[in-house]
Amino acid sequence: MLDQANGLREKMKNQQPENPGRKAGKKTRVLAVTSGKGGVGKSNFALNFALSLIEQNKKVLIFDVDLGFANIEVLLGLMPRETIATMIEKDLAVQDIIEEGPNGLLFISGGNGFNELFQMNDLKLEKFFKELGTLHGKVDYIILDTGAGLSYENLRFILAADDVILLTTPEPTSVTDAYSVVKMVQGIDPNVHLKLVVNQCISEKEGQQTADNFKQATEQFLGKEIGSLGCIPSDARVPEAVKRQQPLLLAYPNSESATAIRQMASGFLQLPLPYKLGLKGFIMKILFK
Ligand SMILES: Nc1ncnc2c1ncn2[C@@H]1O[C@H](COP(=O)(O)OP(=O)(O)OP(=O)(O)O)[C@@H](O)[C@H]1O
Ligand SMILES: [Mg+2]
């Protein structure tokens, strides 16, 4: 794992610098949702954040890259016909594996029991990501629902994305693991754009305090500034929506947690867009070519 991280560090050093002269906005941006500890609410956040962006007239695709686990489709109560696994197996085009969920939400399933994306030979990997590249300009956002923790796969997705939303709960175990993610990422590429979301807060004050302490620690000890998108209350409506296999935003649109996520999406859309390469840059970085 450490050897692989060192390899990634070397490769990131050789990447092209960002070109600040070009305009941002017309391209497909890639947004990774991640966490240190598992089970903090990434998949629910990714799904409802995507639906919030759609409410604001954005075209969004969720790509479930927590490979081997079928998070998003279960939350949507959908059975995808095709997945990344079958795409590779049957040599399909990316258009063939895109499913349509509620409100025009697009999604790609990783496929149950499939976790070999980065173990594939270079040719197959390149073919897969080039195929993904055909989506450039067709959607505004691709949201990656990653697995938890610092696996090699997760790191590759985090390092390649335009923006990374890092979820934690106020629990110290979750906060410490989120800090480890920042430390690892910062050691490889200090230019990664990280934004914090504190989920499952019992009060606004608790959420704010968690975010403030986290930001202070990363600035002081890692020299990394992290913006905060805010906090989401702990809300019984979230597990209720999961049990109904309906997204929270549709099942309980006026719940406290849905309102918080909607506000975050508005805040996110107001943020200045630093120039990033979007989907093309993502693919270049993932393939390190
Ligand atoms: N704001 C919230 N309030 C209450 N419960 C929540 C909230 N957000 C998430 N949960 C609950 O936390 C659990 C984990 O959520 P989710 O599956 O989205 O996490 P995850 O980070 O994607 O997990 P994994 O790491 O296993 O992929 C679910 O049971 C969900 O109902
Ligand atoms: Mg998940």
From TrEMBL:
Keyword ATP-binding set for record: yes
Spans traversing the lipid bilayer: none
InterPro entries, per database record: FlhG, MinD_FleN, P-loop_NTPase, ParA/MinD_ATPase, YlxH/NBP35
Region described as Disordered: 1-27
CDD domains noted in UniProt: FlhG-like
Keyword presence, Zinc: no
Entry keywords, A to Z: ATP-binding, Nucleotide-binding
Pfam family, one: ParA
Protein's UniProt name: MinD/ParA family protein
Lineage: Bacteria, Bacillati, Bacillota, Bacilli, Bacillales
